[in-house]
């Protein structure tokens, strides 16, 4: 009955907002179960890290982490990707139980050409991240503080990116990229390495997960931006999935605002950074990806600059400590000030990215 009363545009808005709210409420409701498990089994690092991502072992870095890393669980990313997967399966299962219900058909956002790949990417990368978190918690593995070696993480992300690129190229017949205000360019097989490189680039920005509330807010803004682009591209299932991820992230943020109940960890970061790349290519927004993910770019660049400086300038540093958010902490900024200012920068950059993409 409702399709005759509400225009299609309105139904699409309702779809995205309803699913976003459903994911937020669902995540809020099952968080006590997750936190009970994480605290009961002490799912946190057992020792404070002494080395920053930039490779320096400094008193500054150890001091910044002394009160946070030990006693606060990792694996908070479980809240995000399990909620997204659970929402998708619940809505899809409801359509099987009530196949004639038009509302449930409209709410279902599982579709082969829009959401299969991002959902599979999120699940695969998050499971690898979960393994990495467990290795870090129990101080296993070859990384400095436990966990998968960085080279193996890169290889895993590259492999996920390669599989995703093949799906785009062969199954979705994608061989062009859009340059705002210029047009579409045919790049053929170059589409595959471009996809992999973009995914590795976004993944490198995962170092943003270092302050209470920082990563949750930044990623919520990023997926909100891609949700808007997908909506105006008439990719309603993809827009709905972006909304579900954003709703889950807002629930995560509710519990991650200082003092954090848990940290996102690799179980969240790996999945989110890889699926951001998929969203960028699905919405043909590769050229605004660095702008929408500006904070990730700046965080990654700070580590790269620091490492290059260490190599070429005989150990001299550009930043007091990298990644960038720790540099500002070391300057004396309270962590909440760093977090909120990074949120503002991320929101403004994301808005500009959306405007450029939709205008061009």
How do you describe this structure in short?
The protein is mainly α and 360 residues long.
Description:
This protein has 360 residues and is mainly α. The chain has one domain. It is built from 14 helices and two strands. Strands 1-2 form a two-stranded antiparallel ribbon. A hairpin with a 3-residue loop joins β1 and β2. α1 crosses α3, α5 packs antiparallel against α6 and α6 packs antiparallel against α7. The radius of gyration is 20 Å and the shape is globular. It starts with 7 loop residues before the first helix and ends with a helix. Its main location: membrane. Keywords: Membrane, Transferase, Transmembrane, Transmembrane helix.
Number of strands: 2
Poorly predicted sequence stretches spanning 5 or more consecutive residues: 1-5
Helix content: 55-70%
Q: What is the SS-derived class?
A: mainly alpha
Structurally, how many domains make up the residues?
1
| Largest beta-sheet details | 2 strands, antiparallel
Head-to-tail CA distance between termini: 38 Å
Average the pLDDT over all residues and give the rounded result.
90
GO molecular function: phospho-N-acetylmuramoyl-pentapeptide-transferase activity
InterPro entries: Glycosyl_transferase_4, PNAcMuramoyl-5peptid_Trfase
Subcellular location: Membrane
Keywords: Membrane, Transferase, Transmembrane, Transmembrane helix
